[in-house]
TrEMBL record:
Region (Disordered): 1-27, 884-925
InterPro entries: ANF_lig-bd_rcpt, GPCR_3, GPCR_3_9-Cys_dom, GPCR_3_9-Cys_sf, GPCR_3_C, GPCR_3_CS, GPCR_3_mGluR4, GPCR_3_mtglu_rcpt
Name listed for the protein in its UniProt record: Glutamate receptor, metabotropic 6b
PANTHER family: METABOTROPIC GLUTAMATE RECEPTOR
A GO MF label: adenylate cyclase inhibiting G protein-coupled glutamate receptor activity
Membrane topology: Multi-pass membrane protein
Amino acid sequence: ATMTSQYLLPPLPQQHQQRTMWRSGPRCGHAPPRPRLVWVLWAWLCSGAWAHQGTQPHSIKIEGDITLGGLFPVHSRGPAGVPCGEIKKEKGIHRMEAMLYALDQINSDPDLLPNITLGARILDTCSRDTYALEQSLTFVQALIQKDISDVRCSNGEPPIIRKPERVVGVIGASASSVSIMVANVLRLFEIPQISYASTAPELSDNNRYDFFSRVVPPDSYQAQAMVDIVKAMGWNYVSTLASEGNYGESGVEAFMQISREAGGLCIAQSLKIPREPKPGEFDKIIKRLMETSNARGIIIFANEDDIRRVLKAAKKANLTGHFLFVGSDSWGAKISPILDQEDVAEGAVTILPKRASIEGFDQYFTTRSLENNRRNIWFAEFWEDDFKCKLTRPGIKLENGRKKCTGEERISRDSPYEQEGKVQFVIDAVYAMAHALHSMHLDLCPGAAGVCDKMDPMEGRLLLQYIRNVNFNGSAGTGVMFNENGDAPGRYDIFQYQLSNTTLPGYKVIGQWTNHLRLSVEEMQWSGGEQRVPDSVCSFPCQPGERKKMVKGVPCCWHCELCDGYQYQADEFSCEMCPFDMRPTENRTACRPTPIIKLEWHSPWAMLPMFLAILGILATTSVIVTFIRYNETPIVRASGRELSYVLLTGIFLIYAITFLMIAEPGAVVCAFRRLFLGLGMCISYAALLTKTNRIYRIFEQGKKSVTPPRFISPTSQLVITFILISIQVLGVFVWFGVVPPHTTVDYEELRPPNPESARGILKCDMSDLSLICCLSYSIVLMVTCTVYAVKSRGVPENFNEAKPIGFTMYTTCIVWLAFVPIFFGTAQSSEKMYIQTATLTVSMSLSASVSLGMLYVPKVYVIIFHPEQNVQKRKRSFKAVAQAATMSTRLSQKSSDKQNGEAKPEESKDSAPKMAYINYSNPDF
């Protein structure tokens, strides 16, 4: 028949035939505006693509009552300008044969679609979305009505046009990009589609791909599983790598979206592999990945070829063992992507939908031969590729190096065979369609044998509802069902490629994921047999006592800053000061009490003052005992016994205060410190002041008259001394009333920059200022006594004790002048407590020793070793003392005048009284 007239495009769904039909002119033009896809179909039809209908040289036709479509990547993508390349044995032939096997099983099953035979129209997509779209138009040709009223054969009779089979549902496609392209066409004609391998999350959009379902879980589940794996390994900084296209880009996008929602995971880089990579492209990718070398984990959604070339580039860059790959199901447990570069892939964690090997299919496929499998139009090509031989016809010579196929070869016996991973899902997809048709037949054709009128024509939207409601045990024993978006449940096996320390190197199952992760980290092995999970982090965890200082804009990157000084780590991001009585622990994660110290008896700082004090106490005791023993001797009487005992008591207390200053502070000890610290010095210097004042007044009065001054008797001297002492005692008791004595712990004194050296000092409530105030009255007495000693310096040598008291006071002043800078100069020292206590006690012992040594040691020496000198001297009256004082003054003036060059007439020697020993302190005087 000669086609001479136009074609008509009907309304897209078969059930809406009431819509206006469109007609085309001879040039297939002049049609009203319609959707773009319709114009594509129109142009395809007008191009003569339907000439010779019924002949499909690139498809398999299986006759049946109900026809299913099939889309399989039998061939790989061809080079530029050529749609198809070499044959794909596993992804193509194995999967396609799985559909044929499933159809055979269903058609032989008396309980599933009884009296109904399933047929098929199977097409090759050549792994190219555009080519698959052209092929899939075969499925919709029966739904497009053609006006053949103007078509006549040469004899004038109407042409006989073979009616194309009606495809009620499609199994496929494999690649997500192909399924997306085909789904856009099939939904226009309401043809349900069930994919066995497309996992792009985009296909879960029920508004755009409402007629699409799949028996494999979408990559959104896979991405969730990969996020869980990454977190389980402690990684928080990874890069992503995707092949350009729906599968790779959608998978990475889902991974990034889930990781953002989950938090705690950052993407260092997200790189894309072009569809047609240029030379050196993969070397550039590896170089870019190394820009963030801390991100060792690489999440890869890529096809096998791209995976292989990425591993090759990493090996070329000498980065074996650096990158830690987490591969999607396109990697799975396949050998081809890692062949000859296993060392680079070692440790790679991959994911694959849970599957099982179908034994029935193995038995079926290994028995296929050229004789019993003529329905597979590509089987001969597979045979040649599988057995590396050539099928020839008579008269055709063989190529060099190729053997001739005999036809006696057998799969698995003469060639390696391993069931392709998606075979199970192809079988489940076919069975899902069959179960939906079975349920539909039971509802629409109850009791009918075969397809009834209600199922002819088949309504696609109704069939879709039955598909979404199927629930049966699949070929591997696992449940097959769909959610509202047409997605299957997420069930994955997790593999790791292991080489070291394994008896069988290869992929090892290390976990599963079914809505939650179960991962055996202890079974994982990495490069070199390392058991510990390598790091893939932007910043390593901070050490205890360090806070995180976040890098702006990168939540997984931070700097670690040590909590310094007396700070501790309050939480992950902040440091806080410890309370004043505490210091941070060694790792600065908490605070601990600061150790409390005090001056110990065995401390070197205490031993020297105690040694001096003990010597002083023994010496003082010896003097007191000697004075008591020789109390009535002239020397003891001449020294003024009453004031001497008072003075010796004060010296004894000065020595004794050393032990109070070293003793452990307590309320009683602190009270005694307050009382006796200044009391000993006050008693000593009050007695010395009274003595020097008495001498000064006697000689000053002697210059004026022969009348003795008042209050020079021993009783008067004791009264004056005790009045002076009472002022000190009164001040101390007022202090007791205002501030009761108590102990305190000083945490500020020993608080150096290093908190490990911090100590709290247990001490009495006496600050440096209060200590000086306690001694201030004694210092006033000492200074006053020194002044009188200076004024009395002109007393003749034979007037006992005047000059020893003077030397005592001069020396004492020097001692205390040295004390002041030492005491206050060590205020910032870490040994302040020890130095100041030692300085104070030693200074007091020295001042006491000076008084004892200069005033009493000579007397004791005379008493003990020269008793012959300890005799009564001739008594003198106050008049003689006054004359001696006057003469002494004149002699001093005369000496001064001679030194100034002035000559004075000498006084008569007889005018001066003889100097005699005058006991000016003797009560008999």
